[in-house]
Write a structure and sequence with these properties.
Blueprint (H helix, E strand, L loop, with lengths): L7 E6 L4 E5 H7 L2 E3 L1 E2 L2 E2 L9 E3 L12 H5 L4 E6 L1
Antiparallel strand pairs: 1-2, 1-7, 3-6, 4-5
Length: 81
C-alpha cells in the first residue's frame, strides 16, 4: 500500500494542471499510479509517463463528473501535504 506521511497529496501534470487528493480517499478507493500499459511504459504522447487512476467500475459513486478531475495524466510530480 502507500507509506505516505501527511493528509493529502497534490498531483501536478506537465501542463501545470494540479489536483489535491486526501490520503484517506486513496486508501478508500485503492487508487493507483500507472506507469505501464500492456506491459510497456506509458509514453508522454499517450498521457504518460504516469497517470492516476480510480477504479470507477468498482465504485458507482465514482461515476460522476468530479472523478475526472482526480484522473491526472502526464504527471510530473507529486507533493505530500
Amino acid at each position: 500500500m502507500y507509506d505516505i506521511k501527511g493528509n493529502k497529496i497534490r498531483i501536478y501534470a506537465l501542463d501545470d494542471y494540479s489536483y489535491s487528493i486526501s490520503i484517506d480517499e486513496l486508501y478508500k478507493y485503492n487508487a493507483i499510479l500507472a506507469y505501464l500499459k500492456d506491459g510497456e511504459k506509458i509514453k508522454t504522447s499517450e498521457l504518460g509517463p504516469f497517470v492516476s487512476i480510480f477504479p470507477r467500475d468498482d465504485h458507482p459513486e465514482l461515476k460522476k463528473f468530479d472523478v475526472d478531475a482526480k484522473t491526472v495524466w502526464q504527471i510530473s510530480r507529486i507533493e505530500v501535504k
